[in-house]
Known about the structure:
It is built from six helices and eleven strands. It has helices at residues 23-27, 43-61, 74-88, 103-107, 156-172, 194-200; strands spanning 13-16, 19-22, 31-37, 64-70, 96-98, 132-136, 142-147, 174-175, 186-188, 206-209, 212-215.
Amino acid sequence: MSIRLNDTAPDFQAETTEGTINFHNWIGDGWAILFSHPKDFTPVCTTELGYMAKLAPEFQQRNCKVIGLSVDPVGRHAEWAKDIHETQGYAVNYPMIGDSDLAIAKLYDMLPADEPGTSEGRTAATNQTVRSVFIIGPDKKIKLMLTYPMATGRNFDEILRVLDSLQLTAGYKVATPVNWKNGEDVIIVPAVSDEEAKEKFPNGWKTVKPYLRIVAQPGETVMN
């Protein structure tokens, strides 16, 4: 099963470190981030899980839940969490999915659908494509997909930046330019006519080209 942007995020039931969940029900009416790991007790992922725990209040402020997945049983996640707290200084404060049968990794196209076996005997290298981040909107559609190589730690500050951009687009019909940061000017999307823009942005905007209209960021700036 291939996954593309704007597809409905596949629903599933799974065991996590915080009990059994139904994914869509767990998301509720907010946003969600699902990020995956090829194996427990891996060095790069250890740093990532700790940093995500540090950022958890930022995601909560944005009405966004966080959930991790690793291709190992839930019981091993609990042991790994001790190492993460010890080495990174932050305790994992979000659920971690156990995917020992590889079902969710396959469902989200991180492993081939015909991949045989379970997590038993597999290494991080054989699961190396299970290094993805998905941002999922309140409509349960996939808004972002990123897959990283095993040796490169993910930039979760960037994921937070993308979430801010997505929420601005959803709320105000604006896009964000290259290297945009929260609080900077944004772009009125082409689908918004000048007449509609006058209602949405009564303080006006700067027209660089008919298709490039710059306006101050609407709404409240989220303080990082």
